[in-house]
Amino acid sequence: SEQQQPGQGGAVLCRLYEEQQAAHALRCRGPHELRAAHARSVPLLSRERILSASRKLLVGSALLRRLETLLAYVLLMLKEPQSSARTKAIRAISGVVTADPSTLELAGVKQAVHLALSEPSIAVREATLDLIGQHILSQPQCVPIYYEAIVKRLGDVGISVRKRVVRILRDLCLKEPGSPHAVDACRRLVSRVVDEEEVQKLALRAFHELWFLPSSGEQLSADESAARCKQILSVSSRATRQSSEWLRQLLRKLVTPPAEGRASLKEHATVLRVCG
What we know:
By secondary structure, this protein is mostly helical. It is globular. The N and C termini lie far apart (72 Å). It is built from 15 helices and no strands.
């Protein structure tokens, strides 16, 4: 009833869950026991209605009213001197964002994420990029908020951090290939062709997926090929003298015939088809 306290309502919900459990068990036994179950005084609710009732009870609970306070305590952990504690704080924030992705738009979370991306621990920076990478594609309004902070990490001293940035930018380009961020991301990714071998290979694979792999089917359609060529030209037109050299190196590596492997030869044929 409306006069029930949250604790009393929770007890009622527990009884309803028990009733449903018992009803399910009876259905597995036979029709005789099932007829007896209809005589129960407490009505059975569907799972959806029980969840709805649970949410309504939670809205009025003291716990929900303290969620922002609890999140503030987690954010304060990012000031702990031990990097392991700060990494755990980022992972805790990631759990909150998983439950409610709009948390990324809170002022306190935005400030904490930007600070965490600039802090001295590689583990914390990598965990922060994992947090952003897991959720930013489902929250396109957050791309402008975090984009510049992400691309700055392309020059990070940590190889694992740079690799994580490459993956995020690749996913962003695949998700919105026609967006201004996609062209800018490709332009910045070109610089990774002179990076460490691990990062270089990841960047080459990213460009192969972005520019030469068909989104579906065995071959690129004419429209897909035209769109990929347009993006290549857009990246080229915005290149500086240094990045133009990087772009030449990138395309040279992509069009060079592979040493061996049937799959590699097939990929190379796709590259030549687009470039041709």
